[in-house]
């Protein structure tokens, strides 16, 4: 598994809400400014499905990112299985500096692990920026 993390200077309730609510997901879930997430849905319960569409702003390409939640512990942890069978585990822990988010995911085999780590970290960094400034 690849693990990334960041600490968000916001309340645990706010972090959980912004992480899981489609109206917020569309505002932070992309790795670079030339991409965006025009659509997101989430049935936040074990066995519930989620999907978001990530797209280049110039319309040149897009893809759906989705899967099924396998663990939902509000304000504490999420786990899910992506459509291709890879697993993701996320924890949310209150610290003196804010909420530490630790995200671990199975790598895919088409891109180098360092590239995957950088892309997922960029999305997590976007989340931090969005949650701290909205």
TrEMBL record:
Activator of Hsp90 ATPase homologue 1/2-like C-terminal domain residues: 9-132
InterPro entries linked: ASHA1/2-like_C, START-like_dom_sf
One Pfam family cited in the UniProt record for this chain: AHSA1
Transmembrane segments: none
Superkingdom of origin: Bacteria
UniProt record similarity statement: Belongs to the AHA1 family.
Protein name from the UniProt record: Uncharacterized conserved protein YndB, AHSA1/START domain
């Amino acid at each position: 598994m690849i693990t990334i993390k960041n600490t968000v200077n916001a309340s645990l309730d706010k972090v959980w809400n912004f992480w899981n609510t489609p109206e917020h997901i569309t505002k932070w879930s992309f790795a670079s400014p030339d991409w965006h997430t025009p659509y997101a849905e989430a049935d936040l319960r074990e066995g519930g499905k989620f999907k978001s569409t990530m797209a280049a702003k110039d319309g040149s390409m897009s893809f759906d990112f989705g899967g099924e939640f396998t663990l939902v512990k509000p304000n504490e942890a999420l786990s899910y299985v992506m459509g291709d069978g890879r697993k993701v585990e996320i924890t949310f822990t209150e610290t003196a500096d804010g909420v530490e988010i630790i995200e671990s995911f199975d790598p895919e085999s088409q891109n180098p692990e360092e590239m995957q780590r950088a892309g997922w970290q960029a999305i997590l960094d976007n989340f931090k920026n969005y949650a701290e400034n909205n």
